[in-house]
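#struct-help
A.M.: can someone run this one for me? Single chain, 159 residues.
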Amino acid sequence: MDKLGSRCPLPSCPRPSVLGCFLVLAAASFLTYPMLRTLTLQLHSTVTGSYVSGTYSVVFANCPNEQIARDIARALLDKRLAASVNILPKAASLYFWKGEVEEVTEILMLIKTKTSKVHLLSSYIRLLHPFEIPEVFSFPMDQGDGHFFKWLEEGMQEN
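D.P.: on it. Structure tokens below:
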């Protein structure tokens, strides 16, 4: 047992137990799994040309009227923070605001972007948006048409 324990590659423990080595290696593997999985999926995507789930996201944002939604959409497209924005009119919204239930009609924007740009896009919307706390959240795209994803990529490339 001493010979097995002395083979553990941990510099801080000259004679750790086999179980201790196993636990440390298992924990290290568990903690690095998400990163290794992401890198493996990206490599696979590059080699095969297939889509990596979560590369793109749909961002939802509400606006008080259609003109503000159009202005924000154009600004996002001009900055290449989005490839496409759908503006859906007249969404009925009910929510708590300062202790009261509010009921208003808002305009919903569905914004297609790269997941890596969601944080910057959200910050930019906050700068342009008239609401004190604009509703901005996203969902990663799990699956879809490969041609559509390629089109999204091309739409956000810098000139």
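A.M.: thanks! The mean pLDDT is 83.
D.P.: also worth noting: Strands lie at 56-63, 84-97, 100-114, 136-140.
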